[in-house]
Amino acid sequence: MEISQFPQINPPHRLLMGPGPVNADPRVLRAMSYQLLGQYDPAMTHYMNEVMALYRGVFRSQNRWTMLIDGTSRAGIEAILLSAIRPGDKVLVPVFGRFGHLLCEIARRCRADVHTIEVPWGEVFTPDQIEDAIKRVRPRLLLTVQGDTSTTMLQPLAALGDICRRYDVLFYTDATASLGGNTLETDAWQLDAVSAGMQKCLGGPSGTSPVTLSERIVDVIRHRRRVEEGIRTEAHRDGSDEMIYSNYFDLGMIMDYWGPERLNHHTEATSALFSARECARLILQEGLDNGITRHKLHGDALLHGIQAMGLETFGDLKHKMNNVLGVVIPQGINGEQVRKLMLEDFAIEIGTSFGPLHGKIWRIGTMGYNARKDCVMTTLSALESVLNYLKFPTTQGAAMQAAWDHYCAMDRH
Amino acid sequence: MEISQFPQINPPHRLLMGPGPVNADPRVLRAMSYQLLGQYDPAMTHYMNEVMALYRGVFRSQNRWTMLIDGTSRAGIEAILLSAIRPGDKVLVPVFGRFGHLLCEIARRCRADVHTIEVPWGEVFTPDQIEDAIKRVRPRLLLTVQGDTSTTMLQPLAALGDICRRYDVLFYTDATASLGGNTLETDAWQLDAVSAGMQKCLGGPSGTSPVTLSERIVDVIRHRRRVEEGIRTEAHRDGSDEMIYSNYFDLGMIMDYWGPERLNHHTEATSALFSARECARLILQEGLDNGITRHKLHGDALLHGIQAMGLETFGDLKHKMNNVLGVVIPQGINGEQVRKLMLEDFAIEIGTSFGPLHGKIWRIGTMGYNARKDCVMTTLSALESVLNYLKFPTTQGAAMQAAWDHYCAMDRH
């Protein structure tokens, strides 16, 4: 290996308009370039406490245990599932896309007894459908996805908390793709656990996963407590319940690290924490609701533009996430060729899809730092150019006009 | 919560001379501030391939499967242990400090049958001691720590590969604290798996963990293969062995993501990958052996200075890691008061210790970007000032002169 073949990093410019990751806010990238701190430096633990407070704001929760898991969004999911599910526990997963399957997959690795209900991709569940399944299955946990980017659908969650309390079910949602761009009310909706990711509406790089835990689920986790040898003292007592089958994802240990005892566990990923702090700070500075409105504004402008281009959209638009749109690849058009031309000639990335939708839809995101008018207009214009180049006919100017009209109409509100 | 109480990030200046994290190389911090790429962008997958090649150089290995685990160093440990250990498998852990206990702890969470041998903290094992234990226990895996910062000891590993082959044992080492600052020869020593962390000798922020896997251990992992629903196709076959009880740490899936199939798993932590790439690039640019020599030079200069200050060191100096020194806290001196004065008045962090050594030794690191003459001289000078201030007598100028003498002597070589 010749080291001179590896120059300084220099990624090409890209406008990331897929289902995420999207471009990070430059202020977030800058926050990551600050020098490190020791993990027990008072300045560091102060930043950790600030991150807890800021994410309570983002999750709309008073939960004491609101913190970061050092890994990508599925690390947050797995930490919650491994810590809450004991082998043999019954869980219910309403599956409406690929990430519902992921919850099943992770729950099976936790040796749960996994039960599912399914709707066709492009739809969501009614509360009644979920309540019926809960009555039938009697699960210990309900595992939901709030926004499944594979189908672009947003599962309504507001009514599910009451149902879960009625049947004594712990209520979790994976808000990786939805948080910050769609309403999520952790406390008002009586969620027991929520996990998120940075690279979607939160506007940062993937690599750390914010989670929040209700007292109810913390109690379950505390009953599985084990403190590792080497740092264990005589004052530490084991919990009465079965241990958690992971050290890295043991939320009890992670709480002890974020809490006043500051028991050594992992070495907090300082740069990722700095980035997560800046993401939350920028979101709350804008106002969480203002940010959600912004996601809806630009998501709708994209939708109107795409429709006026003569393209069909995917799924039930009443339940579409604000931040991503499924666009049906028209007959006679090679979807991958379009993505390649978009990337190579316009430096714009749009997404493909998974499983049953693979090769059938593109997914276009408007989220985080890229939930902006210029991103929407640039993407629509480039996509129309590429489609025209490939002989797909559109009405000249109609798509752009529809987007402009939407912006004007919203401006008058 | 009033968002104006959360200003832009502005960590205080610190010189981090503890057992890690240490200050990151500014070029590494800069690499993290680059804009993101989509995870299947050819520019991104090219960087992933480059990272594999660069870490082959750092690990001194031809192993194809050399990649990053998205989490801190213990994520790398846990990914290897969870993927290689089946419930009930016998493992042998030679424990010579806190991080040996951590391997036991993680192995127990994998439901291994854990056997240990121990030496007092401050010592290491002879190959014979380990061979005897292997003969007695007949483990499937030998789990070792190369450098245990809790005791500052470096376990010699060169002779263990042959022993492991002889008894058909898989050979793993945790090189979190040692890699880059001490010799590690993955292939020559016949290691089957090694994991590392960024925040020690590699000079980056914690948050991603480089690992390398031999063909022998890859074969074990491949027999446990499962591909998740939602991206599984008819061409995918399950392995014949028991599944891995984690999705996030399933090295089979992680290989499929880093390999030519690029099967979707997590969303690679792009900024962490950029930082890891820059760390390896800088190490190989300096020359891995030159970097190790540099760690030894500055580690020894610190040692000579500390001894000339009239302080005792901890543990068997023949087996000390190059990059960290245990210093016995002298009678009548409050160790925490010294650390506080160092931090508050000199902005220098030195470390405390764990378990039986808590309150008994300080740990002073010279590693990564901080394996530098100015760091050593500044730290010695500040420590002497603080000790004098607290009425601990030293011979004026002796510590600094001893360090200078060592640098001069080495310069003449």
UniProtKB/TrEMBL annotation, chains A, B:
A GO term for molecular function: L-serine-pyruvate transaminase activity
Name the cofactor(s): pyridoxal 5'-phosphate
Identify the residues that bind substrate: 363
Q: Which GO biological process entries does UniProt record here?
A: glycine biosynthetic process, by transamination of glyoxylate
Q: Does the keyword Lyase apply?
A: no
Regions that span the bilayer: none
Modified positions (N6-(pyridoxal phosphate)lysine) in chain numbering: 200
- Domain Aminotransferase class V: where? 44-350
Q: Which Pfam families match?
A: Aminotran_5
Q: Which InterPro entries match?
A: Aminotrans_V_dom (IPR000192), PyrdxlP-dep_Trfase (IPR015424), PyrdxlP-dep_Trfase_major (IPR015421), PyrdxlP-dep_Trfase_small (IPR015422), SP_NH2Trfase/AEP_transaminase (IPR024169)
Keywords, ordered alphabetically? Aminotransferase, Pyridoxal phosphate, Transferase
Matching entries from Gene3D superfamilies are given as: Aspartate Aminotransferase, domain 1, Type I PLP-dependent aspartate aminotransferase-like (Major domain)
Q: Which family does it belong to?
A: Belongs to the class-V pyridoxal-phosphate-dependent aminotransferase family.
Q: Which protein, by its recorded name, is this?
A: Aminotransferase
Native organism: Superficieibacter electus
